[in-house]
Amino acid sequence: MLEVRALRAWYGRTQALFDVTFNLQQGQCLALVGTNGAGKTTIVRALLGLITHDGDILLGSENVVHLPTYRRVRAHKISVVHEGRGLFARLTVRENILVGLGRAQRAFLDDALDLFPMLRTRLNENVTALSGGQQQMVALARVVVERPELLLLDEPALGLAPAIVDEIYGYLNKLRAQGLTMLLVEQSVPRASAFADELCLIRTGRSAMTARVGDKIAVNQLVAAAFGNGTTEGHPSSTSAQENDHG
User: Which residues of 89-121 are buried (b: 16+ CB within 10 A; e: fewer)?
Assistant: First the structure.
C-alpha cells in the first residue's frame, strides 16, 4: 500500500529528515512515535509533497516522490487530518465537511452524520462555535465523505481532554473496522499500541526501530530507545522488533 525508502526532507536549507524507511500494508495501521521535534509531522508533509524531499514514496506500484500534491491525493485517494484539525474558521460545519468535494462524494454526508450524530443539529453553525472534540469530529466526518483508501492522521488527540480522546479513538476504530489503511502520528506509545498494528520510532529525522504492538519486549525496547524508559505498563503484548543500521 505505502512503502517509504530513504526519505529525506528539508525546510529551506535546513534538513529535517535524513533517512526514513517503513512499510504500511493495506488495511493496517502504522503509528509513527517519538518525542517532539523528531520529525513525525515532517514525514506526513513529505508524503503529501508539501515540502522539499527525495527518496522513494511508493503508493501501490507508483513512485510518487516527484508528483505534485494534488496528483498524489487524487490518484491514490489520500485523506489527511492535520495537526490542529485544519478546519476553515469562516465556514460552517456543513461547508467544512463538504468543501472541495464532488457531487458523488457529497452524497455520503448522511453516512458521516450517522457516525457523528451530534453534528446534525450544528451543520449551519460556524465551526469555531464547536468545542475542540467536536471540531475533530468535523475533520473525521470529512474523511467519511471522502471515502479514502489511505488516511494520514497527525496527532488526532492533541489538546483534547482524556475522555474526548477515548471518544475520538472510538470513532477511528469504526473506520479501521471498515478496512481503512492508516498512518498515525502519535506521541503516546500506550495509546498508539492500543490502536495500531505496528509502531515505528522516529528519532532525529530517522526511522530507528519498528515493533509489532503484540510483542511486549519489542515495544519495551522501543520505549527505552525513544524516552530512556524501559517501562511499558499498559502496553499490549507482539512479535518482532527491528533496529535499523542508521540509528
Answer: eebbbbebbbeebeeeeeebbeebbeebeebee
Q: Which residues pair with 80 in a beta bridge?
A: 152
pTM across the whole model: 0.87
Domains and CATH numbers, the chain: 2-77+148-243 (3.40.50.300), 89-147 (no CATH)
pLDDT in tens, the chain (247 residues): 999 999 999 999 999 999 999 999 999 999 999 999 999 999 999 999 999 999 999 999 999 999 999 999 999 999 999 887 789 999 999 999 998 887 778 889 999 999 999 999 999 999 999 999 999 999 999 999 999 999 999 999 888 899 999 999 999 999 999 999 999 999 899 999 999 999 999 999 999 999 999 999 999 999 998 887 544 333 333 333 333 333 3
